[in-house]
Amino acid sequence: MDTAAFKTKVTDAFNGAAATYDRLGVEFFTPMGRRLVERTSPRPGERVLDIGCGRGATLLPAAGLIGPTGRALGIDIAPAMIDEARHEAARQGIDNVELQVMDGEHPDLPAGSFDLVLGSYSIIFLPQARAALARYAGLLADGGRIGFTSPVFTRDTFPFLPPMFTELIPLSLLRHLPESWHPEQLHRQLHSWLERPADLTAAMEQAGFTDVEIVDEPVSMSAVSGEAWVDWSHTQGMRLLWQHLPEDEAATLRSRLIGALDALRDGDGPVLIEVPVRYVTATAAR
Ligand SMILES: C[S@@+](CC[C@H](N)C(=O)[O-])C[C@H]1O[C@@H](n2cnc3c(N)ncnc32)[C@H](O)[C@@H]1O
């Protein structure tokens, strides 16, 4: 798949997901975004750029910390996500954010105009992410920082899902995904540089960063029920599988997942899943 077709697919998937993205009784992107913001410590008055801001899981907490003298810009390739972020900022009474539909791989923004670039679970969607990182280094003022998250990728797990799902989602179902979304292909195309900390550090340094820190830390994902998790899974990367599964196989997978996830609950309590997440932070080298 060429880059433009890939981006159209990603845009369509997130436009379709936007209305329910990060809702439906599952907590994942919000706690991860908050943690990324904690790790990058935005300060009052700083200028923040959030790449692939979605509904604002990192943008809005960062905007709170930079305060009225700071400026936060969220960009996303999916217009429906930008609309959702705008509503969410208004709902929370946050008025120091600006939102723009923009391809995060080629941000059309002035050099040296930000103190902090963020990207939670978004830089992983950029076909030429390493080239984009070099552009982000150029957008940062002296001493500027970057912080982003990614899954802790492994080749033998289902794309975007923690290892516990490897048992629950037969890898044979991958035949319904376009070939370019098979884990091996995805890996080769997009993610191989993220897998080994040494490669990732080298990529960051090559892109113009120093003081690279890579920390793997689980996010405690919580879902009010197995059904809530399955409904939520239609709003993230797994949407690509659901979209391509024939109806009967989708129904079988749905009931299998709901049964297995509900079995993890303590009575009426939530389903709790520890999801490994990689936090990468660095400073622009000058
Ligand atoms: C998994 S969501 C993460 C959203 C948000 N950062 C969060 O933590 O909830 C990935 C986001 O990246 C956006 N995205 C993917 N490719 C992009 C690109 N080339 N430029 C800008 N945004 C992109 C998607 O539209 C989507 O909103």
From TrEMBL:
The organism's place on the tree of life at top rank: Bacteria
Span of domain Methyltransferase: 48-144
CDD domains in UniProt: AdoMet_MTases
Gene3D superfamilies the record matches: Vaccinia Virus protein VP39
Keyword Amino-acid biosynthesis in record: no
Keywords: Methyltransferase, Transferase
SUPFAM superfamilies, sorted: S-adenosyl-L-methionine-dependent methyltransferases (SSF53335)
Any one GO molecular-function label of the UniProt entry: methyltransferase activity
GO biological process: methylation
Pfam family, one: Methyltransf_25
UniProt protein name: Class I SAM-dependent methyltransferase
Lineage: Bacteria, Bacillati, Actinomycetota, Actinomycetes, Kitasatosporales
